């Protein structure tokens, strides 16, 4: 803070110059990163990156739910600009291709490496893997203003395999940037700009640290359960303080992840049905068409008269670093009802319900993240949540992070995927074969014995029929 050594004149009795410059450098860097994200509601947040030599500036979607750095490298109807590998003297071709499917859309491209820097990020340049996208389907979004994607998750989910080093791992290996980044996604209520047709959103990605000016209250941490996606454990869900009362494993079936590249809060089928039932009941003073809850229909009110108060608060309880405790993060309808501007006239405010059903587990997308400052503390294998300085709220309620709450063995809420990799399958096959052999052996012996006794006793003797009865 201002009372620290930075505010003292650098006299002979001041702190050593190395300490001063170190503190100064980090402060300057973070200030430079504030408000370095842009985007449009529902179309993701992007950061500007400079790729190649001389630098080609491109807008890149920030995605904590994947691990490849990929940029458009051929003309496409939705791209204003794209990466020209032939114009970069530092580009190196790796001679491999890559294919990446997402929940929606897919792309394929050619792997290479090039020099990268982030103009409003740490003051470093590094060589990183780049997938040059040559073909794609439902990946780029018309009017979204981004030309590539920055996958910030772990090597395990990188394509074509975990040997392709993700951007953040390259950054750590080649520079002294600390192993942490944090995201403040501000949503549409922050810098409303209707001239663009649909509301623009803003935010900050602090690479290498935590900026205390971006949150209020304290940071609460939940462990990263496994380093592939940013997987966490949800132990309880409430709607307006009412527990959904499900077996907590259901909340994490088959995983729960924090994913800035997804717009909605996505919930497993059973959990989604229970949550919608509870939200519908809480807001029953007004009737909504079923298509609204399925995300297929908009609901509109006269401008400025959205009845926020009739919609409930949704609370997710996350396992704390002490596994017998949890803390809860609560989001408002201002987060889970997403404004859709380009459809509405100026006289109406229209919204889409941004909670949806998932077949791949819970996804805490932008809808959740826009309420909080989220710290991806990779060094300590944990994710922190604090109330964001920029979340949208009203005079009655605010997003909240509160704890601790007590529980027992909350780790048991995690879902364990039945292992079916090849080695396991082989083991199972051998065991089955062994069991078969054990069963077959007495059978073979019996048959042999029977054939043998048949030779000894001609048919029709009493002994034989007794043998038969034993075999029943």
From TrEMBL:
Annotated spans, Disordered: 1-22
- EC numbers, comma separated: 3.4.23.46
Q: What's the top EC group for this one?
A: hydrolase
| Biological process annotations from GO | amyloid-beta metabolic process; membrane protein ectodomain proteolysis
- Active-site residue list: 63, 259
The catalytic activity, as recorded, is:
Broad endopeptidase specificity. Cleaves Glu-Val-Asn-Leu-|-Asp-Ala-Glu-Phe in the Swedish variant of Alzheimer's amyloid precursor protein
**Start-end of Low complexity biased regions:** 11-22
Record domain Peptidase A1: where: 45-386
Primary residence: membrane
The molecular function terms of the Gene Ontology recorded here are: aspartic-type endopeptidase activity
Q: Which SUPFAM superfamilies match?
A: Acid proteases
The compartments listed are: Cell membrane; Cell projection, Axon; Cell projection, Dendrite; Cell surface
List all membrane-crossing ranges: 428-448
* Gene3D superfamilies found in the cross-reference section: Acid Proteases
Question: What is the annotated role of this protein in its UniProt record?
Answer: Responsible for the proteolytic processing of the amyloid precursor protein (APP). Cleaves at the N-terminus of the A-beta peptide sequence, between residues 671 and 672 of APP, leads to the generation and extracellular release of beta-cleaved soluble APP, and a corresponding cell-associated C-terminal fragment which is later released by gamma-secretase. Cleaves CHL1.
Q: What is this protein called?
A: Beta-secretase 1
């Amino acid at each position: 803070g201002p009372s620290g050594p930075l505010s003292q004149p650098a006299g002979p009795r001041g702190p050593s110059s190395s300490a001063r410059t170190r503190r100064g450098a980090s402060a300057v860097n973070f200030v430079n990163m504030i408000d370095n994200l842009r985007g449009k509601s529902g179309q993701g947040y992007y950061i500007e990156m400079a790729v190649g030599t001389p630098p080609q500036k491109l807008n890149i979607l920030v995605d904590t739910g994947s691990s490849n750095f990929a940029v458009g490298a051929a003309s496409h109807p939705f791209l204003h600009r794209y990466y020209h590998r032939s114009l970069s003297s530092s580009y190196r071709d790796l001679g491999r291709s890559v294919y990446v499917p997402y929940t929606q859309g897919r792309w394929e491209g050619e792997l290479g490496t090039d020099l990268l820097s982030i103009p409003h990020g740490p003051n470093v340049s590094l060589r990183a893997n780049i997938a040059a996208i040559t073909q794609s389907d439902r990946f780029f979004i018309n009017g979204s203003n981004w030309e590539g994607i920055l996958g910030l998750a772990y090597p395990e989910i990188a394509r074509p395999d975990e040997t392709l080093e993700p951007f953040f791992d390259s950054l750590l290996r080649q520079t002294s940037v600390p192993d942490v980044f944090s995201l403040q996604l501000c949503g549409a209520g922050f810098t409303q700009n209707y001239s663009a047709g649909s509301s623009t959103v803003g935010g900050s990605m602090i690479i290498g640290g935590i900026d205390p000016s971006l949150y209020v209250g304290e940071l609460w941490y939940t462990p990263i359960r496994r380093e592939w996606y940013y997987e966490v454990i949800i132990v309880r869900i409430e709607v307006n303080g009412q527990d959904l009362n499900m077996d907590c494993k259901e909340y994490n079936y088959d995983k729960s992840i924090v994913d800035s590249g997804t717009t909605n809060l996505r919930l497993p089928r059973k959990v989604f049905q229970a949550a919608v039932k509870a939200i519908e009941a809480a807001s029953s003073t007004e009737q909504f068409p079923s298509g609204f809850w399925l995300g297929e229909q908009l609901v509109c009110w006269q401008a400025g008269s959205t009845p926020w108060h009739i919609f409930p608060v949704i609370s997710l309880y996350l396992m704390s670093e002490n596994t017998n405790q949890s803390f809860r993060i609560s989001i408002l309808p201002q987060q889970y009802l997403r404004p859709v501007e380009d459809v509405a006239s100026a006289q109406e405010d229209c919204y889409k319900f941004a909670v949806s059903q998932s077949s791949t587990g819970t996804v805490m997308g932008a809808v959740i993240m826009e309420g909080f400052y989220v710290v991806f503390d990779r060094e300590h294998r944990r994710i922190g949540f604090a109330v964001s300085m920029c979340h949208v709220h009203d005079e009655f309620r605010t997003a909240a992070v509160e704890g601790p709450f007590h529980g027992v063995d909350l780790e048991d809420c995690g879902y364990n995927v039945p292992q079916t990799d090849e080695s396991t399958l082989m083991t199972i096959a051998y065991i089955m074969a062994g069991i078969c052999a054990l069963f077959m052996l007495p059978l073979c012996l019996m048959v042999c014995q029977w054939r043998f006794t048949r030779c000894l006793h001609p048919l029709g003797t009493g002994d034989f029929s007794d043998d038969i009865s034993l075999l029943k």
